[in-house]
TrEMBL record, chain A:
Family recorded in the similarity comment: Belongs to the bacterial solute-binding protein 2 family.
Protein name: Substrate-binding domain-containing protein
Keyword Ribosomal protein: no
Transmembrane parts of this sequence: 7-29
Location of this chain's protein in the cell: Cell envelope
UniProt organism field: Paenibacillus dendrobii
Molecular-function GO term, any one: carbohydrate binding
Domain Periplasmic binding protein residue range list: 48-295
Top-rank taxon: Bacteria
A Pfam family assignment: Peripla_BP_4
TrEMBL record, chain B:
Known catalytic reactions: ATP + protein L-histidine = ADP + protein N-phospho-L-histidine
Name of the protein this chain belongs to: histidine kinase
Native source species: Paenibacillus dendrobii
Transmembrane segments: 21-40, 310-330
GO molecular function, one term: ATP binding
PROSITE patterns the record matches: HAMP, HIS_KIN, PROKAR_LIPOPROTEIN
Keyword Nucleotide-binding applies: yes
Record localization: Cell membrane
Matching InterPro entries: Bact_2-comp_sensor_kinase (IPR050640), dCache_1 (IPR033479), HAMP_dom (IPR003660), HATPase_C_sf (IPR036890), HATPase_dom (IPR003594), His_kinase_dom (IPR005467), Sig_transdc_His_kin-like_C (IPR004358), Sig_transdc_His_kin_internal (IPR010559)
EC number: 2.7.13.3
Domain HAMP: 330-382
């Protein structure tokens, strides 16, 4: 009887200690938390491109805030379609949990994106909308509204009597088309406000020639709306050459060191600036929401800011024009 | 059992019928409550401890950041002191009139050299400049080209320094655009330089600190995965924030007012959709507040682990203790159950039960008391049985020793008749036989007598009967001499002989014979009383026994019944001994009496 009881107690204690030890080791090897892995593919991943670097900073900020791992990739040049396709193929192989992409406008890229969607990987498009059947969620600057803002600035600068031309890059450029629509909408109430739209094929040289020609043709011209940087730089050169700084108002989009200089000297009267940081940030946030199973808006627009010489050094705009502290 | 409802449980509020369940239930409740309270408490305490730890950790980090930034600012301050006290600088900006650019040049060069020397040693400084109110300016560059589109007077650092009159002014981070083609993020320290008499202001001194220094300090600190540092000034403007753009476009909010109003060295907690986080605030002595933001789930990365492990421990503990309490309650109530089982046996009439309860505790003692009680009860019962038996024996004895009065009258009648016939010898013989018979029945001292004595007795009896019935009765006594010395009950055979005469031989027209035999067989002695009389039908035979079952008083005709003799034998010698009767009508009856061998 005594022996029996002792054995019973020993057995219980033994089982208890075994359970204890198992639990001890199971519990104190911290089970790695399930981490999200997100891949971001940009149009251009190049330290020279302030815009895309800012987008990537925004994406990183969102990733850090949510504690997810992020990989940011992109071709070195915005024109390198093959590189982006290669990256997308890699993504398909690696199968990250979510993908954010700024696609280069090309059918092959769209096809790759459809493959990603078929693989049930949450996908969010930033910056450039694509024409696709089941289009993924889009986070983009509202180019139409930006165009409207540019139009309104033109009105302000020309004291509501605009006689302008629009210099765009390509006929088929989606972004430029949207901007143009916005500009025209803002200027529509004023008769003879837009003499026409010209295309510089993204060449500063051509923009210069175009601006020169127009200035010659239209004596009452008081505003040039340049839908991209090259157009703005070419037009600015033409205005300066014609000594018409201040007489012909130059309104442009986006920002670069050259545009900033033009803004400071007064050749460029206003530029409508996107918020790339926000695009990157919201892009990642949207894809995280998708991962969490939340409903997301099909399109999220970010705002543009009109920067003039007067407000370019305000705390907010400094950050937009000079996004990087280290430069 | 009828009281079981009333005493269903030994503790009124526990609805259990067994002590084991009650003990188990009580133990389990106690264990559950204790484990739960302890687990909850330890969880809370450990989380509290981790939280406090992480808060002080964050405070510590912020202090580090603070002193780092402070040292850079102090350095700028020192550089400004150097410039202020430098004679060349003083002279250069003083209100004197240089005749020509050539006159200014040596001063400019010397000042520039000085600034350059400083700049070489300090990588964190991006520019050092002096702007005299006289319109001259000199910087660390050999040739200073100012941005033609920037008006000095509009720069906030310039205006601030001028208005502060000699005190140094720290600007918020801004893009320094005073130098042509240079756009750098800096923090500027500016102060007005006074004339030698210390009254008039003569120029503005500027030192620019690369903002990347502060950016590095702030972005390299490690406060968990999501933690970060931001800086506000006293009026609540953001000086530095890793996500300044988001704040400006209202995609993010930060409790800046609260942070700006917070005391240095304090912390506060914000819990919103972004998660619970701790804000720790440190003042610098130049008007900035450094705020460290740490996410609690980041710092307490193992909060979930703590909770899970405590939960698991609690569950294991509970399971283990439940098993233990099951075992203990079983052990504790086991002696009670043994006792109960043994008592049930006693209830059913088995008084030989002895309960054996191992531990010598209250229940063990109870068991021992129970055993003692049982032993006493058994003794008492045996005593009662003994008393009853001896009472019955003496009753039967009494009955036996009584001489049937009819027999006595008849015998006396016979004696008288023989006396009248002058048969003296017969009278003497019969009287002496009667006397012997009487003596035998009167001697009460001994129940058991040697068979010899019994044979004598029956011989006397038969002698008397033979004299009475004469030709009618024949008898033979055939007792083995080997058994003569064994003992038998007194007056054992007489009732059967009497029955044989009265019921068997007397009613027979022809003479009858009674044979008495005695012999030993194995361990018993067998007597047979055989007659060749009327015999009995099975009904009559049955009647003999049934009569015996009824009260003795109803039949008195033949003195004592056969049943009584049988009972007497069994009482004395045990139930395996007794009487058997075999009878055939018209043939005769044989009574067999079996008794044990009892030596003298």
């Amino acid at each position: 009887m005594r022996i029996q009881r002792a054995t019973l107690l020993m057995t219980i204690i033994f089982i208890a200690s075994v359970v204890y030890i198992i639990l001890y080791f199971k519990l104190f090897i911290p089970t790695p938390e399930q981490e999200h892995n997100i891949t971001v593919i940009l149009k251009e991943h190049n330290i020279r491109s302030d815009f895309w670097q800012t987008v990537s900073a925004g994406a990183e900020a969102a990733a850090k805030e949510s504690g997810v791992n992020i990989t940011i990739n992109g071709p070195l040049q915005e024109t390198d379609i093959d590189a982006q396709i290669r990256l997308l193929e890699e993504v398909l192989e690696q199968k990250p949990q979510a993908v954010v992409i700024a696609p280069i406008n090309d059918d092959r890229v769209t096809a790759e994106m459809e493959k990603i969607q078929e693989a049930k990987i949450p996908l969010v498009i930033i910056d450039t909308p694509v024409s696709q059947n089941s289009a993924p969620a889009l986070v983009s600057n509202d180019h139409f509204t930006a165009g409207m803002q540019a139009g309104k600035v033109t009105l302000e600068q020309t004291k509501d009597s605009p006689k302008s031309v629009i210099i765009s890059d390509f006929v088929n450029s989606g972004v430029s088309a949207e901007r143009e629509k916005g500009v025209r909408k803002a200027l529509l109430p004023f008769s003879q406000s837009v003499y026409g739209t010209y295309y510089n094929s993204d060449s500063e040289e051509r923009a210069y020639i175009i601006a020169k020609t127009i200035m010659r043709e239209h004596n009452d011209l008081n505003a040039i709306i340049a839908l991209n940087e090259s157009a703005a730089l070419g037009a600015a050169k033409a205005i300066k050459d014609a000594n018409k700084t201040g007489l012909i108002k130059l309104i442009s989009f986006d920002t670069s060191v050259y545009e900033i200089r033009l803004l400071e000297e007064g050749t460029l009267n206003a530029t409508v600036v996107q918020q790339p940081f926000n695009i990157g940030y919201l892009g990642v946030q949207t894809v995280l929401d998708l991962l969490d199973g939340k409903k997301v808006k099909p399109v999220t627009y970010t705002n543009s800011i009109v920067v003039t010489k007067e407000n370019m050094y305000s705390p907010e705009n400094q950050k937009l024009l000079f996004p990087f502290i280290d430069k | 059992m009828s009281r079981s409802r009333k005493s269903a449980s030994f503790i009124p509020f526990l609805p259990f019928k067994s002590i084991q369940s009650s003990i188990f239930f009580t133990f389990s409740c106690l264990i559950l409550i204790t484990v739960m309270v302890i687990s909850l408490n330890s969880y809370r305490l450990s989380v509290d401890a981790v939280e406090t730890n992480s808060q002080s950790y964050v405070q510590e980090i912020i202090k580090q950041v603070n002193s780092n930034i402070q040292s850079y600012i102090d350095n700028m301050e020192n550089i400004s002191m150097l410039a202020m006290t430098n004679k060349d600088v003083k002279y250069y900006i003083s209100n004197n009139s240089f005749i020509s650019k050539g006159d200014r040049r040596p001063y400019e060069k010397r000042i520039s050299d000085l600034f350059q020397a400083i700049l070489y040693s300090r990588k964190d400084i991006s520019a050092i400049m002096v702007f005299g109110y006289n319109g001259f300016s000199v910087s660390d560059r050999r040739i200073t080209l100012l941005n033609p589109y920037t008006k000095l007077e509009n720069q906030s650092w310039y205006k601030e320094a001028k208005s502060k009159g000699g005190q140094s002014v720290i600007s918020p981070p801004h893009v320094q655009n005073i130098i042509q083609n240079e756009y750098r993020w800096v923090v500027s320290l500016s102060r007005e330089l006074k004339s030698t008499d210390g009254i008039r202001g003569e120029g503005i001194f500027l030192v620019d600190l690369n903002l990347s220094i502060i950016n590095d300090i702030c972005s390299k600190i490690n406060m968990g995965k999501k933690g970060y540092v931001f800086i506000v000034d006293n009026s609540g403007n953001i000086v530095y924030h890793p996500q300044q753009q988001l704040l400006y476009s209202n995609l993010r909010s930060e409790p800046i007012v609260k942070a700006a109003g917070a005391q240095s060295g304090t912390s506060f907690t914000v819990d919103d959709d972004k998660g619970k986080r701790v804000y720790s605030v440190q003042d610098t002595n130049f008007g900035w507040k450094i705020v460290g933001v740490a996410y609690t789930d980041d710092l307490i990365a193992n909060e979930g682990t703590i909770r899970n492990s405590i939960l698991l421990y609690a569950i294991t503990g509970i399971l283990f203790s439940l098993l233990l309490s099951l075992f203990l309650s079983y052990r504790m109530s086991k002696p009670l159950r043994i006792l109960q089982r043994d008592m049930k046996k006693v209830e059913r009439g088995n008084f030989d039960v002895r309960t054996n309860i191992e531990p010598i505790n209250e229940i063990g003692q109870l068991g021992r008391s129970f055993n003692l009680m049982l032993a006493q009860i058994k003794n008492l019962m045996e005593e009662i049985i003994d008393t009853q038996e001896s009472k019955r024996k003496s009753e039967l004895m009494l009955l036996q020793s009584q001489i049937n009065p009819h027999f006595l009258y008849n015998t006396l009648d016979s004696i008288i008749w023989m006396g009248e016939q002058k048969k003296h010898e017969e009278v003497v013989l019969m009287t002496s036989a009667l006397a012997k018979l009487f003596r035998a029945s009167i001697t009460k001292d001994k129940e058991l007598v040697p068979i010899r004595v019994e044979v004598e007795h029956i011989t006397n009896y038969l002698l008397i009967q033979k004299m009475r019935y004469d030709e009618q009765l024949e008898y033979e006594i055939d007792i083995s001499p080997d058994i003569m010395h064994y003992k038998t009950l007194k007056i054992l055979l007489q009732p059967f002989v009497e029955n044989a005469i009265y019921h068997g031989v007397r009613n027979k027209p022809e003479p009858g014979k009674i044979t008495i035999r005695g012999r030993e067989q194995d361990q018993v002695i067998i007597f047979e009383v055989e007659d060749d009389g009327m015999g009995m039908t099975p009904e009559q035979l049955e009647d003999i026994w049934t009569v015996h079952d009824k009260q003795q008083k109803t039949k008195t005709t033949s003195g004592i019944g056969i049943g009584n003799v049988n009972e007497r034998v069994k009482l004395f010698f045990g139930s395996m001994y007794g009487i058997q009767i075999q009878s055939e009508p018209e043939e005769g009856t044989t009574v067999t009496i079996i008794i044990p061998k009892i030596k003298e």
